[in-house]
Design brief:
The protein has 455 residues and is of the alpha+beta class. The protein is 45% helix and 18% strand.
Length: 455
């Protein structure tokens, strides 16, 4: 193998123009495919602080009437009661948190020292309203202080965690009091700002959803109606629920353990209402949370098929980005093999097998392809970094108009074992497509014809 690599580099030095064109063509192809791969990596991989994506489930529910009725809510969020009396009691669940996302909460924030300054305009910030378990899901980097406690969360105390950017802008620190929409909150912790590309965890401030007076309404229940009878649905609320599974458990285990609890709650609601109502729970893994194959509300099978096609365009683009350059590179390899036919003829005359020569040619081109892949990887990272502040690109990740959050990109967004494997596989496929056919065609020619190539 070492001899093949040495021979490949000798050929690179011998024909620098061919090598430069081959590496450049490979780099452009890999870079184009890698831009798509990096975007999907940012959406799906376990990237700090979203280090538990692979174990996270996203839960919602529906109340489905036994007979068609417009009186039964079709799709609902969940309440803190559902978290406490149902999900947190399940054996397969390590933690369960409720969230009112940042794009729903846009507040102003200012420190006590900034109050009354006539020329000062309080910045608008986005807030994630959540509970104590949120900080078990997301590994936020605490510069100072701590997350708010279970007691502070359950009792709705006016406490908050702010990012370093907010702390710097307002001149506050742990223990200080800030005004959020004019209401006093005690800062219990300061965290490093999370990149806006990690939308599930990014916000300017984090506060308990049980705090009153902030228009959050986590347990805002809509009653089910049957004629003149009303039943409060205690599990219905305004929370997006996320479940952190214990190690070794999967979605099927969660559904199996939840099923008797679901049937029990359905029976209670049906009994109180006087007619059959099904409490249906939908749980999605992080992959299906980001890449939505689920049927939209009211969609038919055709709508589901269209949703399933969402992954096809990027997959086809990646193949095109690899296939079209491979055609051009194949022409280059073909010309190169024509120039080396005499060399191959001599080696076959001295007993070299066709398979040995073919493996050597492919290995030599693989070295060139890997070099091009490394260059392409670097180009793709530079390109994504360059457009990271572009509004159109940001709209793929950020739902809120967040004025303080960090739009920087972390190293883990560009380099993970999965991305490395993608680059390697892309290089191998590109190499095989570009080198295999012309090399095989050239080596099939008779030895005499090859030896007479340069006469």
């Amino acid at each position: 193998m070492i001899k093949i690599i040495r021979h490949a580099f000798a050929l690179i030095r011998e024909d620098k123009l061919f090598s430069a064109i081959y590496i450049a063509g490979t780099a452009v192809a890999i870079a184009s495919a890698m831009v798509i791969a990096i975007v999907f990596n940012m959406l799906l991989a376990d990237i700090p602080p979203e280090v538990n994506r692979s174990r996270t489930l996203y839960v919602s529910n529906r109340f489905i009437p036994g007979e068609k009725s417009d009186d039964v809510p079709y799709h609902q969020g969940l309440s803190s009661m559902a978290l406490d009396s149902c999900y947190r009691r399940m054996k397969c669940v390590e933690a369960a948190t409720g969230i009112i996302p940042a794009y729903q909460n846009n507040y102003t924030i200012e420190s006590e020292a900034q109050l009354g300054q006539g020329q000062y305009e309080a910045p608008r910030v986005s807030a994630i309203a959540t509970d104590h378990d949120f900080f078990r899901f997301y590994d936020l980097d605490f510069i100072d202080g701590r997350p708010f406690s279970k007691k502070e969360s359950d009792e709705g105390e006016r406490v908050c965690v702010v990012t370093d950017k907010v702390a710097e802008r307002t001149g506050t620190s742990t223990g200080a009091t800030v005004r959020v929409n004019g209401k006093p909150f005690r800062v219990v912790g300061v965290v490093k700002a999370v990149s806006a590309f990690l939308e599930d965890a990014t916000a300017d401030i984090y506060l308990p959803y049980m705090v009153e007076g902030m228009d959050l309404y986590p347990n805002n229940r809509n009653p089910l109606r049957n004629g003149d009878n009303y039943v409060d649905v205690t599990y219905e609320g305004n929370l997006s629920v996320r479940i952190l599974l214990r190690e070794g458990y999967a979605l099927k285990d969660f559904n199996a353990e939840l099923e008797p609890l679901r049937q029990q709650y359905s029976a209670i609601i049906s009994s109180q209402l006087g007619k059959k109502v099904e409490w249906a729970v939908m749980a999605r893994t992080h992959f299906f949370h980001q890449i939505n194959f689920f049927r939209p509300d009211g969609a038919d099978d055709q709508g589901l098929a269209l949703e399933t096609m969402n992954l096809m365009p990027p997959a086809i683009l990646m193949l095109l980005f690899l296939f079209l350059p491979a055609i051009n590179l194949s022409g280059l390899v073909s010309n190169r093999m024509e120039a080396r036919r005499a060399e191959m003829g001599i080696r076959k005359a001295f007993g070299a097998k066709r398979r040995t020569l073919l493996n050597e040619v492919i290995s030599e081109n693989l070295v060139l392809t890997l070099l091009g892949g490394i260059v392409g990887w670097i180009l793709s990272a530079l390109f994504v970094s360059a457009i990271s502040d572009n509004k159109i690109f940001l709209q793929m990740f950020v739902s809120a108009d967040q004025s303080v959050v960090d739009t920087g990109m972390q190293f883990q967004m560009f380099f993970t074992p999965t991305l490395f494997l993608i680059v390697f596989v892309c290089c191998v496929l590109l190499n095989l497509m570009a080198a295999l056919i012309p090399a095989w065609h050239s080596l099939r020619k008779p030895i005499v014809e090859s030896l007479n190539q340069k006469r």
